[in-house]
Amino acid sequence: MNSKKSDVEKNIESLTKKFKSIADVTFSFGRYDIVLYNYDEIEELTAFIEEIKSIGSWTVLKTRVSPESNIDLV
């Protein structure tokens, strides 16, 4: 189980370092949910994920918030 968590952490780190359009990545129930600021890097992201064998299931969503937004979370 520890190695699986380690793979998830490595995958999330790899994704967020490589792609600047990623706002957030979460992992639950065996699926990665990736939130993007925009779809500019979607083709490169798809190709990168297909190369990573430990990512089996994933979804991509686009946020309406821009990375420059200053939002106070309550």
Brief synopsis:
The protein has helices at 2-18, 42-51, and strands at 22-28, 31-36, 58-62. It is of the alpha+beta class.
Tell me about this structure.
The protein has a three-stranded mixed beta sheet, covered by helices on one side. The model has no long low-confidence stretch (mean pLDDT 86). It is α+β, with helices and mostly antiparallel strands. It has two helices and three strands. The termini are far apart.
Reconstruct the topology from this structure.
Elements: H1 2-18, E1 22-28, E2 31-36, H2 42-51, E3 58-62
Parallel strand pairs: 2-3
Antiparallel strand pairs: 1-2
How would you describe this structure in keywords?
3 strands, alpha+beta, 74 residues
Overall mean pLDDT stands at: 86
Order of helices and strands: HEEHE
Number of strands: 3
Q: What structural class do you assign from the helix and strand content?
A: alpha+beta
Strand order of the largest sheet: 1-2-3
Strand content: 15-25%
Which stretches of 5+ consecutive residues score pLDDT under 50?
none
Q: What Rg is obtained from the alpha carbons, in whole angstroms?
A: 13 Å
State the helix count: 2
Q: How much helical structure, as a percent, in the residues?
A: 25-40%
Q: Roughly how many Å apart are the termini?
A: 34 Å
Which word captures the global form? globular
* Largest sheet data: 3 strands, mixed
